[in-house]
Amino acid sequence: MITAKTLLTRTFVLILLVVTLSGCGGRIGALLDLGANEKLKRKTVREETESYEAIKKALLQGSLKKDMTHAEVLRRYGRPVLTYPERDGSTRLVYKATASDWIKGEKIYLFFEPRNTFVRAECVNCS
User: Fold this and answer.
1) What helix, strand, coil percent values describe the chain, rounded to 5?
2) What is d(CA 98, CA 116) in angstroms, rounded to the nearest whole number?
3) Domain residues of the chain, as ranges?
4) Which DSSP helix (H) or strand (E) runs through 55?
5) Sheet containing 107-112: order of strands
6) Residue 114, exposed/middle/buried by CB under 10 A (0-12, 13-18, 19+)?
7) What is the distance between the alpha carbons of residues 114 and 112, in angstroms, rounded to a whole number?
8) Which residues face 107 on adjacent strands?
9) How far apart are CA 83 and CA 66, in angstroms?
10) What Å distances lie between residue 113 and 16, 60, 87, 117, 124, CA to CA?
11) Which 8-state DSSP code applies to residue 111?
């Protein structure tokens, strides 16, 4: 037969376990989220670098043609790191390898007219 003291002890231990594990659950959830964020970061880094390399190759081979649409460039070569809408309605896309420095590193700018057609490219610090 279970005594009141044993029942009270078991209840206390159970409550203590629930409280302790609840706190761990939050920490474990945070660690799982951090792991998912790391995977997302690695994927983003890979995609940005692949897009930069594809644009650079297209420029060197001359396959990036004037009058290509903005959508066509994105579909063929991937998303840029940044998109700048200009005041005149034109757009500038910035491609760079993720490991490259923003100030001194290689960057490729693609310029589009307000009608979203490609007009020119500028390669900064490209080797």
Assistant:
1) 50, 20, 30
2) 26
3) 4-124
4) helix 4-61
5) 82-85, 91-95, 107-112, 118-124
6) exposed
7) 7
8) 124
9) 18
10) 66, 22, 11, 5, 20
11) E
Q: Tell me if 96 sits within 8 A of 102, measured CB to CB.
A: yes
Hey, what are 43's tokens?
Answer: 């994927």
8 A C-beta contact, residue 104 and residue 96:
no
Residue-level pLDDT, tens digit, the chain, 127 residues: 667 666 556 665 556 455 555 554 555 565 556 566 777 778 888 888 899 999 999 999 999 998 899 999 999 999 999 898 889 999 999 998 877 767 778 899 999 999 889 999 988 887 7
Cα–Cα distance measured from residue 42 to residue 50, given in angstroms and rounded to the nearest whole number:
12
Q: Domain 4-124 maps to which CATH number in 3.40.50.720, 3.30.1450.10, 3.40.50.10610, 3.90.1140.10?
A: 3.30.1450.10
CA gap 71, 17 in Å, rounded: 56
Token digits for 20?
A: 């302790």
Q: How far apart are CA 104 and CA 32, in angstroms?
A: 36
